[in-house]
Amino acid sequence: MDSTKEHTTLVDVDTLQKFKFLFFIPLRELRNQACVTQMIKTQLIDKIFADSEAKDAYKLVLQIMKTATCLIIQDGLDEWPGEDAVPSMAGIPKDHCLVLTTSRPWKLADERIRNSKIDILLDLEGIAILEHLTKMYCCVYLAN
After folding, report:
1. Which of 10, 13, 9, 19 lies closest to 97 in space, CA to CA?
2. Which one of 44, 81, 90, 120 is least enclosed by Cβ atoms within 10 Å?
3. Distance CA 144, CA 137 (A)
4. 81: which residues sit within 8 A by CB, 6+ positions away?
5. Could you report the per-residue pLDDT of 87-109, keeping only the tens digit for each?
6. What is the pTM of this model?
7. Which residue spans within the chain are E strands per DSSP?
8. Residue 98 to residue 71: CA distance in whole angstroms
9. Rounded distance, CA 115 to CA 111, Å?
10. What are the sequence ranges of the domains in the chain?
């Protein structure tokens, strides 16, 4: 096996399969929102459901987050123009939801981002062959 293939092959598929739902939030597209649950509502629910159904769908998503294992990916914290350092996690149950936030390293120098709020810090160098990743996984993309 050549070294390129070693770096692009994800071997921990079992871990990914533990997540029943994945929410991808492109922060750069959410200029006027500060709460993750509101971002999910306006970028997913309000675009799929009629106004009369949106309230029930939002309640269902909140219930899913309380009972099913979810992965929430907040992409581009360094591009998010919110007034706070990070989006509010109010309403996100920590026992069922794992939040992964991507950012360029310089954003972490913001004194408002406390180290005590970061469980694990990873430095990723990139994906050598993007096609391998996109063929292996599909996610809900919360964007226009």
Report:
1. 19
2. 120
3. 20
4. 31
5. 888 888 888 898 888 888 777 77
6. 0.71
7. 21-26, 70-75, 97-101, 140-141
8. 5
9. 9
10. 34-141
